Request: fold
Amino acid sequence: MDLSKIPVVPFQLILFSLVFLLLGMVYFLLPDFFQGAVWSVIIQIHFFQGKFLFFRLYKDRSMTLQLLIMTLSFFANAAFLVIFGIPKGSNFILGFFLAYFMFLGIFVISAILSVRVVRSNI
Reply:
């Protein structure tokens, strides 16, 4: 089963666009909130790219490597918040957490939809 041929689901693109539209609107209301959200997305993109890379390279051990990356991601985000978030204030931390959990939600939804696509092609 080749997972590289999974079609892009339009729902994923719409959801991703809505998240960035919401963050763009918040930028004008709370700049610190927006800055925290952007930093969260920047950090998470690299960890999720690593997860996808390990999934493609090591399919038999991908679950263990993904759990390792998620644990590393948790501690990296915690360290980032301690170093940069506390001096910036509560709006930065709130934006960081909100974007972090929205990004995880997008990943979970896309993973569920990808499993449905793969099962329908079997």
About this structure: The chain has four helices and no strands. The mean pLDDT is 76. Helices lie at 10-29, 31-57, 62-88, 90-121. Residues 90-121 form the longest helix (32 residues).
